[in-house]
Amino acid sequence: MPGEVRHFATKGEVERHIEALGLPATVLRPTFFITNFEGLGPQWAGGSLVLTLAVLEQTRLQMIIPADIGNIAAEAFGAPADYLGRVIEIAGDELTGPQMAEVFSRAAGRPVRFDSQPIEQVRAFSEEMAAMFDWFNTVGFVADLATLRDRHPYLTTLEGWVRDHWSVPAEPASPAPGE
Questions:
Q1: Strands, E assignment, 43-111
Q2: Which domains does the chain have, with CATH numbers?
Q3: What is the pTM of this model?
Q4: What pLDDT is stored for residue 53 in this prediction?
């Protein structure tokens, strides 16, 4: 469990407390939420659609939708013998920034460019978010996607989520002549 990202570290503290109490437990560790793209999805910049994230081009970001977390949790409650005592990182997809932009491009029917946002820009408004993106770029999640897909074939990919839940944002209006 990452320790340098505060909102990850607090989850680790809860896990250690449960373990110290000797409570039987299953721990699900979800990765980056695909639904974050509701606010972080491609935006218009200079007449082009641009997906801007503070991940390096080669960073493979694992991601999942909250509904899939709920489905896996329901399975764990329904079959406790299969899950009890396990710690499972869960994800439905793993893509680089350029691959994510390509997913959005297919849905938009037009090019979407990936732009790796400098971490200092993120740090200027949130040290916590900068620490998280630093962690994505240097450590990252390690969910075993092949095993997860074998066991949970319904896991949503970014492609599936974008197709079903995302639409191209309205293009900004051009200023009227003389404005």
A1: 43-45, 48-53, 61-64, 87-90, 93-95
A2: 6-164 (3.40.50.720)
A3: 0.89
A4: 97
